[in-house]
Amino acid sequence: ATSEAEASAREAEAKARGLAALEKRAAEAEAAAAGAARAREEAEAQAAAKDFELEQAKQDCASATLSAQQEFAAAEERLRAQLDTAKQVMAVLRQQCQQATRHGSAQSSTESTERSTNSPSGARGG
User: Fold this and answer.
1) CA 119/CA 116 separation, integer angstroms
2) For residues 98 and 115, what is the distance between their CA atoms, to the nearest angstrom?
3) Is 33 in contact with 25 (CB distance < 8 Å)?
4) What is the pLDDT of residues 27-38, one digit of tens each?
5) pLDDT band, very low/low/confident/very high, at 103 (cuts 50, 70, 90)
6) Which of 57-66, 83-92, 104-113 has the lowest mean pLDDT?
7) 125 by DSSP, 3-state: which?
8) Backbone dihedral region of 125: left (phi > 0), alpha (psi from -120 to 50 degrees) or beta?
9) In 3D, which of 86, 88, 67 has the Cα closest to residue 78?
10) Is the separation of the CB atoms in 102 and 96 below 8 Å?
11) Is the predicted pLDDT of residue 110 greater than 50, yes or no?
């Protein structure tokens, strides 16, 4: 009976050691799962941060593009105004040149007439 009790005790001890080993493995698996969950959460947080940075970069790019378009439009408007002014100046100068040319031709004709009238042969009637 004693040897039966000892065998039973050894068997119970072996089962207890096996159970302890299983509990240890289960605890290690739980720790690994918790570590994996933490790593996943960290990766998700990093991904969210990268998404935020990407969205911020997109907004910055859109803002810079809009600003550049506005600056271009303003510069284009200034250049158009300068071109219009230059065209107006050219028109005035052209008009002044034409008037000066006409005035010069009229003056030259008048001087020519005055010379022929004041010349001795003109005074005698030719």
Assistant:
1) 5
2) 25
3) no
4) 999 999 999 999
5) confident
6) 104-113
7) coil
8) left
9) 86
10) no
11) yes
Residue entry with tokens 């002044």: 96
Q: Which two tokens stand for residue 70?
A: 């506005």
Return the pLDDT at 119. 61
**Widest CA span of the chain, in angstroms?**
180
Q: How confident is the model at residue 60 (pLDDT cuts 50, 70, 90)?
A: very high
The angle subtended at Cα 51 by Cα 49 and Cα 52, nearest 5°, is: 65
CA angle 88, 91, 97 (to 5 degrees): 140
* pLDDT for position 105: 75
Which CA distances in Å does 60 have to 48, 65, 69, 74? 18, 8, 14, 21
DSSP string, 57-76: HHHHHHHHHHHHHHHHHHHH
